[in-house]
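REVIEWER CHECKLIST
Item 1: Sequence provided? yes
Item 2: Single chain? yes
Item 3: Sequence as submitted:
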Amino acid sequence: MTVMKKILQIGMTSNYGGIESFIMNVYRNIDRNKFQFDFINMETNGKALAYSDEIESMGGKIYKIPGRRENLKKNRNQLKKIIEENNYDFVHNNILTWSYSEGITLPVRYSNSKVIVHSHNSYMNSGMYARRFLNFLNRRFNYSNNIIRLACSNEAGKWLFRNKHFTVIPNGIVTKEYKFDSKIRDVYRKEFNVENKNVFLHVGRLSHQKNHEFLLQWFKEICKKDNNSILFLVGDGELKTKLKKKVKSLNLTDKVKFLGIRKDVKKLMFMSDTLLFPSFYEGLPVVLVEAQATGLPALISNTISREIDITNNIKRIDISNAPKQYAELALKNVYESNISNRKEAYLKVEKAGYDIGHTVKMLEEIYTSGV
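Item 4: Structure as written out by the authors:
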């Protein structure tokens, strides 16, 4: 009889972002007769975790505890109680920095759980002074022999773990579900009234990291060269109000559409002609894996790891240059795109090792062997 392994996932938020997509892709496809996932929700203001309903429908438990900014003592004590009482085989920390350490120290001190530290980013915003201090302070845990180190890319692993050994776990997707569908493309282009337009797309949290200021200036320059262009922004975040004001000041209100959080990103990718992605930094963005599987050409910043170059649909720009320099390139991407070439793109992504089956197999081996 197979003993079920219990894994506590820390790092999910209310945002439908890259970490959340990764964890849910794994949870949907892992053998749930052998592996049980529970989740910690430490969001403030009563926010639910992303995918809460789906998590609970698949048998996952969600434990709500205070956010560390709300009450650090209660956050620690309640997490300690959950770890002590549930006998988890693993506590899986999905992190961007070392700033939150309780998911590492508490299971090591108060349980027999093995601790996974999984790096999902390769940089840290220079303005986050408190978080930078905590990251510096807690980096000492990197030298512990009691943690299993995982990363979404080599760059993310080297940034968090430095010279310590780590294993790269690809941000896998269900590649066959991203096979380009021209019928859906036609339906969506008609629905959004963009049948004869140059359709640009950006998917990402409305936050500093994603470099929306550059993106909007870039799109302004694109419109100067071809006014028959439109930009859809998918995502939500703390900069939403500021960015809407920016759009208004650039006289782009009719051309930039804020779609918020969507569950049909794949279909929006089918609809679109080019993805614009000028982030300051990333780990290994799931959205770029998805875009390549749909065959959607993407223009991305030169700061993103070349490990994401799965297909030849990725082109890079230097975000230290003026956005104006890349307006022609963006339009060329649209003019030269060939719909027929998009249909087999998902096979290239699968062959490159980014199918969820490969990712799940790697994690199941870790959860089973503990190394």
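Item 5: Key structural point noted by reviewer: The radius of gyration is 21 Å.
Item 6: Recommendation: ____
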